[in-house]
């Protein structure tokens, strides 16, 4: 649709969108006209961009010729406009936690209907972002694939009948789960799409687009996963209450006995231990690097946790773990690379971290300092890996710098990515996507926090995560494109 019939894609865009698209195409063309692309395909593509006026005129002609299809698309865009006119109804972690107290059938049904009506609104805004992309990016097959996935999900959720019973809710949850699975291709597809468009679209524009896509994706998954977790926990509790095994009793469970309530908080933790998450992530990251370097257990750099080691806070552990794991992976990989010559020793001599160097550890340790204040949790990850290459330092938060875009190209080797700790088992830590820092920052920003990095040239890196402690910050999503900014540190 997008790639093969530009007119059709064009027809899906609202009037304002079309005006802005036309000027965007012209602007992009003027800016990038001078770029000479080497391959024939790219040369052909850029010719299309340079001839922006012709492209727009051609698109309109093709649109006009597409008859019924055009009417259909026009109708679809009217629907999309109705949804983009709505603001998302934002939530806080605290609301999620409070909601699960005294969870009843009525509350679960209300939760299902909130998710059912909220997902299409949030998807509609992102579909609209695609339509505002410069035309040339809209023709990229990977971006088109995500665009189509979003349209399908948007249609499916907006047409889903209101949930009235537990049975309806089970069907709704099945739908949501299927969508979550299907959309696990989105990150690699976006990564490939962006890497292929890096020299065709203004870097700021594509970064804004990626930030917006990814933060909104986290928000939709949070709502979906929270609702699924609550539903599954409620089912379990109800089965236990009725004395039913997991395999039986759907008919009897069509609705809960009146007054049945349970205490559940889904994927959120009200008192997540920071030190516990750091220790778990350290263990996981060490295992990954030891395995990929064929080293005995205990060889990877030691992670020392200090400061307020008894601190707890309200968070979604999956999000917080992702950030800590990425920072630890960065620290470990650079410390190990800096002292790589020490790895040349006979692997058997490396058993135990001290054996090869007498009483000295093989690598300098990574220090993780936890600081808990009334409002915030701050975690500092300090390594002695030599610091960040000054050539790449200005671009570490960007998806589009040529160096970063090249790394995103590695997504061609990955089918699915959900940006979670456990999936890294199937992706070699030696493969660099240039994705860990920007994605960590997006997770932190979503909950009103931030990730920042200070490079100490020739020595190491101090990376900081700051997150609100009390769960009372509303999710940081904006419907409008212009309101999302990229990293400012
Ligand atoms: N602790 C560190 N020490 C030295 N350089 C670092 C450190 N952390 C990040 N960098 C630099 O910043 C770049 C971007 O980091 P980022 O985590 O976003 O991507 P990556 O580690 O290359 O790939 P990915 O995280 O997707 O596996 C890295 O490629 C590296 O050059
Ligand atoms: Mg990384």
TrEMBL record:
It comes from Coemansia asiatica. Residues 91-236 form the Branched-chain alpha-ketoacid dehydrogenase kinase/Pyruvate dehydrogenase kinase N-terminal domain. Its EC number is 2.7.11.-. The keyword Mitochondrion applies. GO terms for cellular component: mitochondrial matrix. It comes from the Eukaryota. This is Protein-serine/threonine kinase. One of its GO terms (molecular function) is pyruvate dehydrogenase (acetyl-transferring) kinase activity. It is found in: Mitochondrion matrix. Its main location: mitochondrion. Coiled coil: none annotated. The gene is PKP2. Keywords: ATP-binding, Kinase, Mitochondrion, Nucleotide-binding, Transferase. It is an enzyme of class 2 (transferase). Residues 319-469 form the Histidine kinase/HSP90-like ATPase domain. Belongs to the PDK/BCKDK protein kinase family. Pfam families: BCDHK_Adom3, HATPase_c. GO terms for biological process: regulation of glucose metabolic process.
